Amino acid sequence: MDKTKLINNIGNYRWTICTLLFFGTTINYLDRQVLSLLHPILEEELKWTNTDYGLITAVFQLTYGLFTLFSGRLIDKIGTKKGYAIALIIWSIGAILHAFAIPIGKGTSDLLGILGITGISVSVAGFIIARAILAIGESANFPAAIKATAEYFPKKERSLATGIFNSGSNIGAILAPLTVPWIAYHLGWESSFIIIGSLGFVWLVFWWIYYDDPSKQKRLTAEEYEYITEGNEVNDIAPEEIKETKTSWFKLLAFKETWAFTLGKFFTDGVWWFLLFWLPSYLTSQFGLKNTDITLPLAVLYSMTMVGSICGGWFPLYFIKRGYDTAPARRKAMFFIALIPLVVLLVQPLGEITFWIPVLLIGTCASAHQAWSANLYSTVSDMFPKYAIASVIGIGTMAGSIGGALTSFLVGRLFDVYKATGDLTSGYTIVFGFCAVAYLFAWFIMKLLVPKLK
């Protein structure tokens, strides 16, 4: 019998699981994006400064990074089904709590006053609490999804399955500007948090019904189960808990290779967080776009990131086919990718013509980030044995979150300084300058630390 026909006859339930992971990741990014889209409205209504908003987003990034270090190990301990469900419940509650941030902030502000901490407004305190809860839950999305992929797919299909569910992040970033401004305009900003946040509970019903450990999954045919597990060792199906617990973070920090990846994340993740959290405000302050006016520009911009995700993964193959080994090919590809964000140096000079030019240039930078990120993660598997990969990625993710938090906080302070002088445009010029050179700077730091990937 033809091998392709045989595979088609074994069943395709594993792709149902992939679909669940795709929608889970889409909801993850939808919940994450609501605040940035409502920032112009909240800034006016709640009298926020840019520093206030920068502080709120920085708390999210720090909390997300900290809990990423531990969420994967927790999911290994309690199982994928329960772990992902608990994570989604936590982040959905956190998303909905944004709508009640002011009453939450009243109690928080009073407590901070007792502790001697002043200067944080009631609304800011409430949003910090809601944002931290959201981050705690969202930090488990990718560890859970990656483990579910390892459980339900044979090795040869995992990269395809991962690429499909990971594209949910781009879809979420696209859907958010198409829905959130409309909801806020017609029903109020509180309704945006409640409606979008509630989507997770709808997904949870399907997850609980259709997901189970493959060995207990009644919807899997015996042939498909055998196909999934064929050639897989036990510690390959469940990411290597035993070996990983023996890999000390402090031991890994002794390697220059760890620092190469970690600093690569630290210097470039801040660009992505800035693009996620500040672009709606940029379009409002620089071009006067408000409410549903920003829907189409942001949808176009984030759609471009999907191109970067796909092309970035393919680019090293271009050099591999020309005789390069995998690691040198990846580094060469990353160098050319690092040149692409230089286009944002033209954002301010050409922005006077039409806002569409900055949108396309910033979209190009965002697309380059996704291409860079795909290859940066892959350098870990180029340099480290399999049992150490998750720990190194956890360290780098934490560093990237710290870099993102610092970027958000400093950007907020910088914008307030320039806003006070009536020259906010110069503030954006400085930030876009940082975005332009961050990847080249990171590439040279990585090259200096590890001259040859090995």
UniProtKB/TrEMBL annotation:
Gene3D superfamilies given in the database record: MFS general substrate transporter like domains
- Coiled-coil regions listed in the entry: none
Q: Which GO terms describe its molecular function?
A: hexuronate transmembrane transporter activity
Tell me which SUPFAM superfamilies the record gives: MFS general substrate transporter (SSF103473)
Q: Where in the cell is it found?
A: Membrane
Sorted alphabetically, which Pfam families does this protein's record hold? MFS_1 (PF07690)
Reply yes or no: does the keyword tRNA processing apply. Answer: no
Instruction: List, alphabetically, the InterPro entries matched.
Output: MFS, MFS_dom, MFS_Na/Anion_cotransporter, MFS_trans_sf
The principal localisation class reads membrane
Could you list the residue ranges that cross the membrane? Answer: 12-30, 53-72, 84-105, 111-134, 164-185, 191-210, 259-279, 299-320, 332-350, 389-415, 427-450
Q: How does it sit in the membrane?
A: Multi-pass membrane protein
Question: The Major facilitator superfamily (MFS) profile domain covers which part of the protein?
Answer: 17-454
- Fetch the PANTHER family from UniProt: HEXURONATE TRANSPORTER, SOLUTE CARRIER FAMILY 17
Which protein is depicted? Major facilitator transporter
Organism annotation: Flavobacterium beibuense F44-8
